[in-house]
Automatic annotation (TrEMBL):
InterPro entries reported in the protein's UniProt record: LiaF_TM
Record field: transmembrane: 36-69, 81-101
Organism: Anaerotalea alkaliphila
Name of the protein in its database record: Cell wall-active antibiotics response protein
Keyword Membrane: yes
Record keywords, A-Z: Membrane, Transmembrane, Transmembrane helix
Residues in LiaF transmembrane domain copies: 6-105
Length: 224
């Protein structure tokens, strides 16, 4: 709910500015966007962090990058390089960190009620068989992930909630055919789809999936 409110406030703010611009009331929307576009990164970071407890590295990174860029735009901070020039070296650093971390081979089989999982410059397959599944926090950067929940079940507290950030990669979430799934997300040069079977599924959702997709894709489905 907090994520939806933050996103709603951002959309409302830009809608009001657009209306004032169209009415000729001295608001130059193009100039405002050029000067304040880093606030979009800040908003996305806040949306990630507003989801509650769990893995929030992606939200912190986006929030930090947005604040630095906005300070530069405002003349408060002078960066000697463009932020886009930092993408490649930062990616190399992340790759080095990933190579130093211990990695399990093959499919990871778990029975955790809450799943924290990331995929950095690699592919990860996770099968979770918890009979009291409550949710997951997923982070995919320059890689791919498959989360298979078909061997598990949701506990008494419904809905379970999955929050995922997918950047420059892809993710598949597999769920049992009996689950009612509701998917929402913020696609930024990316997309998501809910391919679960909707037939005969009325009432409240068993699983809620909230996504932020940046130059990537995510599918929620019943079969591979």
């Amino acid at each position: 709910m907090a994520q939806r409110r933050v996103l709603g406030l951002v959309v409302l703010f830009f809608g009001i500015l657009f209306l004032l611009d169209q009415l000729g009331m001295g608001v130059d929307l193009g100039r405002l966007i050029a000067g304040y576009w880093p606030l979009l990164l800040v908003a996305v970071g806040i949306i990630q962090l507003a989801g509650g407890s769990g893995f929030r590295l992606s939200g912190i990174l986006l929030l930090g990058a947005g604040i630095l860029l906005q300070l530069e735009k405002a003349g408060v901070l002078a960066l000697s390089v463009r932020i886009w020039e930092l993408v490649l070296p930062v990616a190399v650093i992340l790759l080095g960190v990933h190579m130093l971390l211990p990695r399990a081979k093959g499919v990871r089989v778990r029975s955790e009620d809450f799943v924290n999982q990331m995929a950095l410059f690699s592919g990860v397959e996770v099968k979770n068989a918890s009979r009291n599944f409550q949710g997951a926090d997923l982070l995919v950067l320059f890689g791919g992930m498959e989360l298979d929940l078909r061997g598990g079940a949701i506990g008494a507290e419904r809905p379970a909630k999955i929050q995922a950030f997918v950047g420059f990669g892809g993710a598949d979430i597999l769920v049992p055919e009996g689950w009612k799934v509701r998917v929402s997300g913020l696609p930024l040069f990316g997309g998501w789809s809910n391919k679960t079977d909707p037939s005969g599924k009325e009432g409240d959702a068993d699983l809620v999936v909230q996504l932020i997709v940046l130059f990537g894709g995510c599918e929620v489905k019943n079969k591979i």
